[in-house]
Design a protein that fits this description.
This protein is an alpha+beta fold. The protein has a single domain, classed as 2-Layer Sandwich (Alpha-Beta Plaits), CATH 3.30.70. The protein is built from three helices and four strands, in the order βαββααβ. Strands 2-3-1-4 form a four-stranded antiparallel sheet. α1 runs antiparallel to α3. The longest helix has 17 residues. It is globular and about 35 Å long. The termini are close together.
């Protein structure tokens, strides 16, 4: 198993509607990707100062599945169209 975690910080002024559009697009993408075993994602609850704004945790059966996800044109389009325009910073880890 490969677990992929991403924590995003959005640019100032990012609206809740924009983030909701990203979440819906991510759900659609996840439904299309056969290499994805499971995904969870959502907004930070605002409980602690200094946290990121949004996180996703995706699980893949193996490294080949994660590599396929990273290379998939649908994933690249999602990042280009929904993430990049509002992303100020990102932190990732795979384990």
């Amino acid at each position: 198993m490969v677990t992929h975690i991403v924590i995003f910080t959005w640019v100032a002024g990012t609206t809740a509607d924009r983030v909701e559009s990203l979440a819906r697009a991510l759900d659609r993408l996840a439904a299309e990707l056969s290499d994805l075993v499971a995904i969870r994602h959502g907004r930070d609850l605002g409980i602690r100062e200094g946290n990121g704004d949004y996180a996703l945790v995706a699980t893949f059966a193996d490294r080949a599945g994660w590599d396929a996800y990273q290379a998939d044109p649908r994933h690249k389009a999602f990042v280009r169209d929904f993430v990049a325009p509002i992303q100020a910073a990102r932190l990732t880890i795979q384990f």
